[in-house]
Amino acid sequence: MESLPGIDPGVPPSGTGCVECQEQEGWWFHLRRCAECGHIGCCDNSPGQHATAHEQATGHPVIRSYEPGEEWFYSYPEEAVFEGPLLAPPQSHPVSQPVPGPAGRVPADWMDLLH
Fold first, then answer.
1. pLDDT in tens, 25-62
2. Which SS3 state, helix, strand or coil, does residue 100 take?
3. 31 by DSSP, 3-state: which?
4. CA-CA distance, 76 to 58, in Å (whole number)?
5. Is the dihedral of CA 80, 83, 85, 87 positive or negative?
6. How many Å from the N-terminal Cα to the C-terminal Cα in the chain?
7. How far is Cα 56 from Cα 32, in angstroms, rounded to an integer?
8. Measured distance CA(105)–CA(35) in Å, rounded
9. What are the tens digits of pLDDT across the range 13-28?
10. Strand ranges, E, within 13-79
11. What pLDDT is attached to residue 93?
12. What is the distance between the alpha carbons of residues 77 and 80, in angstroms, rounded to a whole number?
């Protein structure tokens, strides 16, 4: 398979939730996976916007959805969605994990707090 810049198919995800939100006992709306290093961050609708912050801090240019049933990739430099290779498992957070999540930390007014 031809290698794509910013994508390492052999790197597993960093966990089941946003790294920074878990460290800060925060919450997220949807999750994104860095296709280069496996970092799991929250989407730009989430209060923390940690996936984009990771891209800005590292220069890693590509993310993949980490939501069950979603397989799209996104290139920050090209501002485009595209199809990419199969990444190391798992392909998403556990189906049993609620959206938004994690369970027990999502405020009742979460919809008002989205970007």
1. 999 999 999 999 999 999 999 999 999 999 999 999 99
2. coil
3. strand
4. 12
5. positive
6. 38
7. 14
8. 27
9. 999 999 999 999 999 9
10. 31-34, 40-42, 62-65, 73-75
11. 97
12. 8
